Amino acid sequence: MSETKENLSFYERPGVETTILPFDGGLPLGIESVYSPELGIGGAYGSWGRSYSNSNLPSLVEHRIGKALTSDDILNLSELGFNYRQHVPDLSPEQHMQLELEVGSRLLRKALETCNWDASEVEGVLIGLSGPISTDYVRQISRMVGIPDSALKVSVHKACDGSMGALHLSLNPDLSKPGQLNVAEYLRGKKVLVGGIEGLSRFTLESRDKNALQLFGNGMGVIGIKPGENIKLLVGKTFENYDEEGLLAVRMSYPHSRPDIHSASLVDMVQDTSNHIRVAGLMKEPANGESVEMAGLMGMVKLFVRTGVQVVADVYGEYQSLMDKIGHSGKSISMGIVHHANYKINALKAKHLSKLGIEFPMPWLLSDFGNVSAASNIIAFLRKLPEIKLGDHILFDGFGAGTYYDVMAVSMGK
């Protein structure tokens, strides 16, 4: 795993188009687009809000919690792989709604422009959102850019695993449940937008957790793909492991049936309208009613590393078996696109995988974003897209609070 040497805020990066949105005296929005002609895949990613470095972030956190931080309270964020993250100020509910609709629709529009697609051609929009600002957010931003109401919309609420849950659902027909639309079969070969949009600065306004307020920030990313054509599933696994201890508790701001935690599945997959499916994971919620509550950084390690390593190892083993079966035993994973929870977690996962004989590059790519939950895998993928070649095999590793995992090996390009 490599760590970027850049120390620029996101808005200072070459290639980022910035604009000022008319909220609170002017809030920056930055979007960068990436396209691979070889693969026929492209998209856009970005962030919004004011950019905070590690040195001036503590003052923002102190403002939000209403008291001074001690030296022990301040995380060594550079060691965790983060130098900047973007935050919005306290706005009214109406302003937050207007702002997130604006940034989400601009992101979709830029992704369409990058892929040279007309909005009328899109037949699916699948977005991961940890704390959606409204239950019909995906439908609203799709309508704002002219995507037909008839196009399938899928909202995936599996915390940081949201975008990978969305991608997996678009590629793997085995994830469908009896009596429900088989999303992968329905979307095969069609023009589909997949991504994650996370207004975590707004969501964490309702938390006083010092760690969460330092780690999380705003981020978004969307890619345009044709499932089964320019990106094909080789093997994949989805896994649930309920966080009964509440090591990373998250309030559910979305509908959920709240079954017993010993149920066969803790994920609701409900088609609530003719063209909208909601995939919602049960969360251990903060006892104090806040939006996020963390049991410290070691709690995140305990939550994600052991099970996360096992899920990746299982998928890697299935991948090797498939390569042996089809006579491509020498083929290997070119790169791992891993959720950026923090650098130490990802480095520890890589170390444990290496002990199992599993090694492939797992680059660290989001030092200018902070933990942006479901957006991070998509941003990381787009930042590496120019290096990905036709026929490369990529492993996507998604994991998030709840706890939910979606890991898949895919083949890139037609």
Would you kindly provide a brief summary of this structure?
The chain has 414 residues and is α+β, with helices and mostly antiparallel strands. The chain is built from ten helices and 17 strands.
Characterization of the model:
The chain has one domain (10-412): Peroxisomal Thiolase, Chain A, domain 1 (3-Layer(aba) Sandwich), CATH 3.40.47. By secondary structure, it is an alpha+beta fold. The protein has helices spanning 57-65, 93-115, 137-144, 162-171, 183-187, 200-203, 210-215, 297-325, 343-355, 376-384; strands at 17-21, 27-36, 41-48, 50-53, 84-87, 124-128, 152-157, 192-198, 219-225, 231-240, 248-250, 267-273, 276-281, 292-294, 335-338, 393-400, 404-412. The strands form 4 sheets. It has a 9-stranded mixed beta sheet with strand order 1-2-3-9-8-6-7-13-12, sandwiched between helices. The protein has a 4-stranded mixed beta sheet with strand order 10-17-16-15, with helices on both faces. Strands 4-5 form a two-stranded antiparallel ribbon. It has 10 helices and 17 strands. The radius of gyration is 20 Å and the shape is globular. Helix 2 (93-115) crosses helix 3 (137-144).
